[in-house]
TrEMBL record:
Top-level lineage group: Eukaryota
One Pfam match: FMN_bind_2
The name this protein goes by in its record: Transcriptional regulator
InterPro entries, sorted: Split_barrel_FMN-bd, TR_PAI2-type
Species name: Hericium alpestre
Length: 260
């Protein structure tokens, strides 16, 4: 992901909050296989585990699961079975290549040059762009695919229960959340055999908020006004983010001048 300094976000608590608010990540692997494409991607909802949510150094671990029938999962299993796939304690070995997970914010939109009320009338030196926010993660993945192994059963039981609880309470805001135990036990057991678990130890994480903060104040105000006039939920959300990121950018500029 191309990161201009003005768009980059490295504050870990902010990145964690973004992932938890937008847990559907695009999971990408690069695996040599005689049967499947080298590059594959899948949309997977993730949970982020950290010991200290306020820490600005702890990267954490992502937990997810995917269908065993998914060609990407098949390529991973094929690769792991062709190598030493378990450690001495029975846990699966991690993939040798890093994986990538990309999380996208829900609000993104084309930005017309007509929004730039400061620069466009004076010089005309403006072009269209696209505003969006995203967080990118690189890490080492361990895949729990042996349905007969205790480690797989333990991982998937916790993963499915935790993910359901997070989605029901944090995303849906239900006071009475649906729980895995509400479904028949044999039904859950059958479905669990049809999935594999994925655990990613994060090695690098970065965020990008491309929300017009590089523009002059007058143009940013024009962007905010333009999106608000659209009258849509997405427009209001982008306008709010443009305003927030603009204020943050100006604050950083002020701090840099003071420290110079």
């Amino acid at each position: 992901m191309y990161l201009r300094a003005v768009h980059a976000e490295h504050h870990l608590p902010t990145l964690r909050a973004f992932i938890r608010d937008n847990p559907l990540g695009i999971f990408t692997t690069a695996i040599d296989s005689p049967s499947f494409p080298f590059l594959q991607s899948s949309h997977i909802p993730w949970l982020l585990d950290v010991q200290d949510d306020d820490s600005e150094t702890e990267l954490g671990v992502l937990r997810g699961h995917m269908a065993r029938a998914n060609p990407q999962a098949k390529a991973i299993i094929e690769h792991l079975k062709s190598t030493t796939s378990t450690t001495d304690d029975g846990h699966p070995q991690p993939l040798t290549r890093d994986v990538m997970i990309l999380f996208n914010g829900p609000a993104h939109h084309y930005v017309t040059p007509k929004f730039y009320t400061s620069t466009k009338p004076t010089t005309g030196k403006v072009v269209p762009t696209w505003n969006y926010a995203a967080v990118q993660v690189y890490g080492r993945a361990t895949v729990y695919f042996d349905s007969k192994a205790h480690a797989t059963d333990a991982f998937l039981s916790k993963q499915v229960a935790d993910l359901s609880r997070h989605a029901e309470t944090a995303i849906m805001k239900y006071e009475r959340a649906w729980e895995v135990g509400d479904a028949p036990e044999k039904y859950i057991e059958a479905l669990t055999k049809a999935i594999v678990g994925v655990e990613v130890e994060i090695k690098d994480i970065s965020g990008k908020w491309k929300m017009s903060q590089e523009m002059a104040a007058g143009d940013r105000e024009g962007v905010v006004e333009g999106f608000e006039k659209m009258g849509s939920e997405e427009g209001f959300k982008i306008a709010e983010t443009v305003r927030e990121r603009g204020m943050l950018s100006e604050k950083k500029k002020g701090e840099a001048k003071v420290g110079a």
